[in-house]
Description:
The complex is a heterodimer. By secondary structure, chain A is an all-alpha fold. Chain A is built from 14 helices and no strands. Chain A has helices at 2-10, 12-29, 31-34, 65-101, 103-118, 121-132, 137-147, 150-164, 167-174, 179-187, 192-215, 226-235, 244-272, 280-292. Chain A starts with a helix and ends with a helix. Chain B is 76% helix and 0% strand. In chain B, helix 5 (91-126) packs across helix 13. Chain B has one domain (91-322): MetI-like fold (Orthogonal Bundle). Chain B is globular, with a radius of gyration of 24 Å. The chains are: A mainly alpha, B mainly alpha. At the A-B interface, helix 5, helix 6, helix 11, helix 13 and helix 14 of A face helix 1, helix 6, helix 7, helix 8 and helix 10 of B.
Amino acid sequence: MKNVILGLLRNKKALTGLLILAIIVIAAVAAPLLTGFDPARRVGLPHQPPSADHWLGTTRIGQDVFARLIYGARTSLAVGFGAGFIITAVGTIMGIAAGYKGGKIDEAISFLTNMVLVVPNLPLLLVLASFIGQASPVVIAVILGGTSWAWGARVTRAETLSIKQKDFVKAAEMLGEPGWRIMAAEIFPNLVSIVGINFIGSVVFAVITEATLEFLGLGDPQTVSWGVMLYSAQNASALQVGAWWDILTPCFALVFLGTGLSLLNFAIDEVANPRLRTGNSLARWVGRVRAGEGRL
Amino acid sequence: MVFLLRRLCFYLAAFIAAATINFFLPRLLPGDPIQIMFSSAGSTLSPENLKALKLTFGFVDAPLWQQYLTYLGSIFTGDLGMSIKYFPLSVTSVLGRALVWTAGLMGTATLISFTLGTTLGIIAAWRRGSKFDVIFSVSAIVATSVPAMVTSLVALYFFGFTLGWFPTGYAADPALDPAFSFEYISSVIYHAVLPIITLSIVLTGGFVVTMRNNMINLLGEDYITMGRAKGLSDGTVMFWYAARNALLPTVSGLAIAIGTVLGGSLVTEVVFNYPGLGNTLYHAILARDYPVIQGQLLIMTLAMLTANFIVDVSYVLLDPRLRRA
């Protein structure tokens, strides 16, 4: 694990990714210091282009776009990392349990995993979200966590199966260590890079999907978030009236965050698998991000 | 054969699972499920039609398990109910009409991105560490992390609104009547260009990454070294020795892409106001047209399962080891 971290600090892609992430986190945390405007209130004339007062212009109902951008980062980060954590935690626990325990437990978990994998994720999310109606970011994060863990479980299980055969696991078994301890202390540390890639991939997936659900009008329109910004801009026909700042700002923000996270993920893959022996995990994640979007 | 039969049973179970979600979801929510599902139906549907619709979704005066069986019964007879928004059309015909547009859009985009992405992936892996590799594999990864709506909106803004090169909505010029004429068909193609380019950009990245990693895993194999030692040209080793084998896992990627085709273009269709499945679903969501929303989940699940089954069959055909097992 130490090697992974040291390697990352020497990797240019990882540093760029971390820098981008840091900028977004700092902007989100320090939002009240960076702008005096309330992101939810009407603070100016409608659809004003960028100016000294409103750095990124105003929306159709006169909200400050810059304020919405940096306050919205809080929502995207919270949902992304929250849902990413749930997805990774469930996937990792399921995967290790299935791979290590084997037998009936493995069969049950694998059946469930495959089942969740073949029911297309996005339509399922749309059905869930449309019944819940105006889902808040917390609800979106929980739904995402509950429906998107299957890829992680499958990748983790495969890796656990190969680690299980290693001598140090056999040694721990002979010493009579309990099963949970072997899984948590012997197997899990060897999965760090997979779990890391899984986590960051899930964060990207959650950020994209939350923004998509909100863009499609399934979120709570009162929320300040990038997805809702896109939704209101689209509803206000921002492109048709030439208010590019209204719609391109959240677009840029999503690209910026996505770029940072994916550079970081690429770097972890490079550092952890110098010969890309198990490097397919990243490819699988990419597939998953796309599949999760239902190839949106 | 046993392998394929087992897969078929599994797919049946998965389809029933999707139907079960559809059945229980409205009933699990607080409140009256009939009220939730059909509150917007009063204005368009007559009482008799509403009654038929309720029957389709299993809302009968009977214990829950009988309601469930009623619902499964209607699904397996192909009855997905009536659309509330597009009454008197049935859900199947609403979705069927839209499916044609989506299939054309996504079929073309998948073909373009598969060819382009796979070729780029092969070359990137072959010249691993070169400038070409760094530029394309990093941008491929970044491209997969960009939401489709961003790509679509940016493309629409620059090429549709600012430069005015392409139309900004619809599948064909609304002034033309659908006909098998040169004028109409060229209008359809002209309207499809921008959505297809956008979708191809969105899809290509994934193929590049998958193919590159598959190739790199194979390039260390002995038979590659052997091919080189024989003095074969780089091109022959690259395409006929390595790429041919690296393509196998990508086939499954392609099938998943086709399986999710239907959802695939959702956001792009909404942005370009293209009359495919995605746009239909979007308008169904706005109108809370639950029969259409639920029907969409079933049809997409079915498409996904079919695509998966085709992959299973093609694996059996392509990989002799599976035939013996």
